[in-house]
Amino acid sequence: MAVKRKIIKRSFVSGVIAELNVARIVWLTNFRAAMEFRTAFVLQIVGMMINDCAFLALWILFFQVMGNVNGWGSAQIFALLGMNLMCYGFAFGFAGGSLWMPRYVEQGTFDGFLLSPRNLYIRTVASRFDLAGLGDAVLGVILIIAYAVMTGSALSLVWFAAMLPATMILFLSVSVVCSTAAFYLPDSNHTIMAAFKVFMNPTMYPSALFPKVARFIFIVLIPSLTVGGLPVEAVMGHSLLTLGLVWLIAALWLLLSIAAFYGSVRRYESGNYIGIRG
Fold first, then answer.
1. Which residue has the higher pLDDT, 128 or 79?
2. Count of CB atoms within 10 A of residue 13's CB?
3. What are 69's strand-pairing partners?
4. CA–CA separation, 175 vs 52, rounded Å?
5. What letter does residue 181 receive in the DSSP assignment?
6. What are the CB-based long-range contacts (under 8 Å, 24+) for 33-41?
7. Beta partners for residue 200, in sequence order
8. Alpha-carbon distances of 8 from 22, 121, 126, rounded to whole Å
9. Rounded CA gap, 197 and 191, in Å?
10. d(CA 175, CA 178)
């Protein structure tokens, strides 16, 4: 039995590695295609950075007028926005297919993913490569480094790096759960984006502004604070418990997204779209 379990474990790990290698090839192909329009790419990234910096300036002005709120000040806003930009940028930069799922379903192009021999979940979420998202991620890294300089704590970089994979997984899992509505509702793209904004909007606010009941809702039920505010709190307090909570919630939402995805795919009716994706 022990030998059999080892064989199953090895085959599972090798299968995941193979799927990620296929995703890497898709990313490189999409990256090369996007780089053919360098001017548009640069302008899009610069525009996103200007928009993000304007948001940062508003929060800095707020704390200059109001002072610190429950330990939160301008430095923590750098960390909050940086964490949000990193997980959003890396997650949707490399796996933007989660939010494109409604278009695939409505246009019938989801047939191509069903015909592919690869893992359906990974193949779907990795089908889109968003260079603008990577621009957000770069700015996020800069802001996190700025936070480390402002607080004089190089160790905070290690803390953020430990939580970044979990927040990326959480971002993708929530977007997949929202996008599965496409299998149940016609013309669901606007509804799905509205639902995703309910998750996204609170991520941009300091967690210190939320009362206890709202904190529970936006940490567990709608895990907005788990993406931004909670990681910043973990860094501020060097709390391993908070770090573990972020990873636990991310793991639970990943399992929920996988179950919701495959459960919803059973309802899909082919669009008779001719075409196969590798």
1. 79
2. 10
3. 72
4. 21
5. G
6. 34/129, 34/131, 35/131, 41/131, 41/132
7. none
8. 21, 20, 25
9. 10
10. 5
CA distances from 2 to 6, 10, 146, 219 (A): 6, 12, 50, 39
Amino acid at residue number 252 = L
* 161 against 10, higher pLDDT: 161
CA distance 96 to 100: 7
Cβ neighbours of residue 191 closer than 8 Å, sequence gap 6 or more:
181, 185
Q: Looking at residues 141-149, what average pLDDT do you find?
A: 92
Model-level pTM? 0.81
> Given the structure tokens 């996007």, which residue do they identify?
34
CA distances from 60 to 55, 67, 175 (A): 9, 10, 29
SS3 88: helix
**Exposed / middle / buried, residue 178 (Cβ in 10 Å: 0-12, 13-18, 19+):** buried
User: What SS3 class is residue 273?
Assistant: coil
Structure tokens at 69: 């709120």
C-alpha distances in angstroms, 33 versus 28, 41, 44? 9, 11, 16
- Where residue 239 falls (left for φ over 0; alpha for ψ -120 to 50; beta otherwise) is beta
Tokens 């991310």 belong to residue: 250
CA dihedral sign of residues 260, 261, 265, 271: positive
The Cα–Cα gap between 97 and 204 comes to: 23
Given a contact cutoff of 8 angstroms between Cβ atoms, the answer to whether 206 and 69 are in contact is yes
Q: Which of 50-54, 86-90, 106-110, 138-142 has the lowest mean pLDDT?
A: 50-54
Q: Report percent pLDDT > 70 for the chain.
A: 79
